[in-house]
Amino acid sequence: MLVSIELVGGGRLFSTLAVVTAMLVAVTLFLVWQHYYRDLSPRRGVTTGKGAGEVRPASLRELLSSLSLEEKASLVVGWGRSRRLPGSAGETRPVRVPSIVTADGPSGIRIEPQQDRWWYATSFPVPTMLAATWNPELVERVGRAMGEEAREYGVDVFLAPGVNIHRHPLCGRNFEYFSEDPLLSGVIGAAYVKGVQSAGVGATPKHFAANEQEVNRVIVDTIVSERALREIYLKPFEIIVKEAKPWAIMGAYNKLYGKYCVQNEWLLTRVLREEWGFEGLVMTDWGAGDNPVEMIKAGTDLIMPGSDEIVARLVEAVRRGELKEEELDRAAAKVLELVEKSLTYRGYRYSNQPDLEAHARLAYEAAAEGVVLLKNDGGALPLKEGARLAVFGTGQIETIKGGMGSGHTHPKHVVTILDGLRERGFRVDEDLSALYANYVREKRGEEFLKRFYHCEAYPEPLPQDIVSEELASKFAERNDAALIIVTRISGEGWDRRPVEGDFYLSSSERRLIEMVSRLFRARGKKVIVILNVCGPVEVVSWRDLVDAILLVWLPGQEAGRVVADTLLGRINPSGKLPTTFPKDWKDVPVAKSPECYPGLPPENPQKVVYCEGIFVGYRYYDTFGVEPAYEFGYGLSYTKFEYRNLTVVMDGDVVKVAFEIVNVGGYPGKEVAQVYVRAPEGRLDKPFQELKAFKKTRLLNPGESERIELAISVRDLASFDESERVWLVERGLYEVRVGSSSRDIRLVGHFTIDSEVKFKP
Ligand code: BGC
C-alpha cells in the first residue's frame, strides 16, 4: 500500500529504484530459499518442487566442495522427532538442502495422531506373519502400499524392514523380524524393500547386525563365530542388499566382537560396502554407539537422532586431525545422495490421503495368507455358516493387532475377533461375550478401552477363567462349538520370558481350556483355540484337549475378519511356520547355558555368546534329533496336496529342481513347496538340511495341478570355511528334499558336485 502511494503520488526516481531493488532482492532471496532451504510447512501437503528458472547442481554431490566443515558435520548428524510430521522418527538437518523425514515400521507407517487430526496408517500383519505367507509377490505389494502411505504423508525414508533372526524364540522384537531362516528372511525382506522403494520412498533394513535380543540391547556384546554370522545373521542383509538395493541400512545398537556395530569398520565397510557392493547410506539406530568420530571412520554416514554437541565434536575431531576430512566428506556425500533421491527434494506434492481403503483390503489379503492351521482333528474346521459360537477369552475384545515400541501403528480401525465373527454372520453367544466385555471394561476402564489401539504400552494380561462351570455348561448346551482366544504381545526393550503367562499358558488360561474342553467335548462339540500371539507358545501340554488350533499371529487391523473367514472356510489356511514352535523351553538351544542367553535384568548381561553356532532353529532341532511341537515350514490346509514327478538336473553352476503339485482334496487352496538340501559329510559340519528354495502355488482348485521349477545356484550351497576365509562347496552327493514342511518331505532326488568349489567372500 505504502509503495503504491509513493509511486503514484511522488513519482521520484530514487523511490522507484529503491522499490525495484528491494523487489529484486526479495525475488533473489526467495529463489535462494527455494533452492537451499526448502523445508515443508507443517502438514500442508505442499512440497517446493523445482520452480521455474530455478538453478540446481546436476548432482547434489557437487555441493560438497562448497560446504564448510560445520555444514558437513551438520549434514551427517540428524534431529530427533520430526518437526514436520508428528510421530515420525526424525529428520536430517536442512543444510543448504532440505531436511528429509524418516518414519518407523515395519507393520505399517508409524506416525501419531494429534489432538485435532488423525493421520491414520494401515496396520498390516506383523512381519513374522508376512513371512508365514511365504509369498514374496504378496509381500512386495504390501511393501508398496506402506511406501505409498509413507509417500502420501511426506515421509522420505521408511525405517523398515527388520531382518534380524529369530535366534531366541522369545526376543521381544521377533514379531518385527521374519524368520529363523536366513533364506526366507532374505527373500521376503528383498520383496518388502522392492515394494517400498517402488513407491519412491527409501527402505532401511535393520538392525545390522547380530541384534537378536532386547535385554541390554544398547550395550550387549554379541560373540558369534564368523561362520554363523555370515551364514545365518548377515545372510538376509546380503540377499536384500544384492537383490533390492535398499537406499539405507540401520546399524544396530549392540556390539559385535567388542565393537559397537555402528563403530565397526569391518562390518560397515569391509563386508557391507566392499564385499557386497552396498552403495546406500548407513545410519545409526537411535542413540547407538558411544563415539561419533569412530562411527564416521567406520562407515556410518548419518548419526541419529544426533545433537549439536555431536556436530561440534565432529568439527573438533577434523580440526585436531582425529578424523580425516575425506571421511567426513564420504558420509556427507552419502547424505546428499539420499536427499537427492528423496521425494522432498524432488518436490513431490503429498496428499495426506493415502488409499486406506485399498490398503485395508491388502492387509486382509496378507493376513489371510499368513494364517497357520496348526491342528484340525476330524475336520473340526471349517465351521458351518451361522454356527452358534461360545467365545471365551478377553482377546475377543482386546484383540492384539501388532506389537509395541517403534513397530506400533495407529490404524483408523481394528476389527476385533468378536466384531469379525458377528460381521460374518456367526451366531455369537452374546451373553457370554457380554460377560467378557463387562469384565474388560471394569478392569481397564472405559477411557482406556477407547484408546486401546493407540496405547504405547499394554497393561498386564487379565485372568481368563471368569466363567463358572455352571454357566459354562449352559453355554456348552446351547452352542455348536467353543472358541478360546489366547493372546500374547511383546515389544521393544524387553524380551518375553519362559514362564507361565508368557511362553507357557497362565494358570487361568489352562483352567479355562480344561473346563471348556471337558464340557463341550462331553456334548460332542468342538473346541477351537485361536492363537493371537507374537511368537511361539508352549502347546504340547494342552493341545490334546482341543480339536483345532489356528495361529493368527498379530494380524493387523483386519484381524476379526480374517479369523471369521478362516473359521468359515472362505479363507483356506496356506501359511507355514517361519519359525519353529518348540515342545518345551528346555529344548531351545539358547536355553542350554546362561552364556547363550545370559539372564535377564538384574543380572545385567554384558555379552551374549551365540553358542549354538550355525545350529539355529530347525538346523538345531533336525541335526540333534530334538522333536519340536510344530516344525519349521509346518501348516495344514483344508485340502490335501500331492507332490509328483521330481527331476533334479545340474545345469552348469545351477541345480534345476522341478516337480508337480496337485490339489487332491476337496477345497481350493495354495501350497508352499519347500526345497531343502542335505549336504554330504565333508570337512565342515553341516546342519541336517537347509532350506534352499521355495514357492507358493497359485490357488489350485480340487484336481488342479501346478508345475514348479526352481533353480539353486551352486554358490548358495556353500558354507563359510573360517580356516581359509572362503565360501566352500564340498564335493559329493547332495540330497534334494522336497516337501510340505521341513519334516514332511514328499520327494527326494540327488545331484553330485564333482570337485570342491571356493568363492571369495
Ligand atoms: C529402534 C529402531 C527405530 C528407531 C527410531 C530405535 O529404538 O531400535 O528400530 O527405527 O528407534 O524410532
Structural class call reads: alpha/beta
- The unreliable regions are 1-11, 30-55
What are the bound molecules? Answer: beta-D-glucopyranose
* Major sheet attributes: 6 strands, mixed
Spatial shape = globular
Number of DSSP E strands = 26
What fraction of residues sit in β-strands?
Answer: 15-25%
Strand order, biggest sheet?
A: 10-15-14-13-11-12
Whole-number mean pLDDT? 92
Helical residue percent band: 25-40%
Describe this structure in words.
The protein is of the alpha/beta class. The protein contains 20 helices and 26 strands. The chain has a six-stranded mixed beta sheet with strand order 10-15-14-13-11-12, with helices on both faces. Strands 1-2-3-4 form a four-stranded mixed beta sheet. Helix 5 runs antiparallel to helix 13 and helix 6 runs parallel beside helix 8. The longest helix is centred in the first third of the chain and has 24 residues. The N terminus is likely disordered. The structure holds beta-D-glucopyranose. Beta-D-glucopyranose binds next to loops.
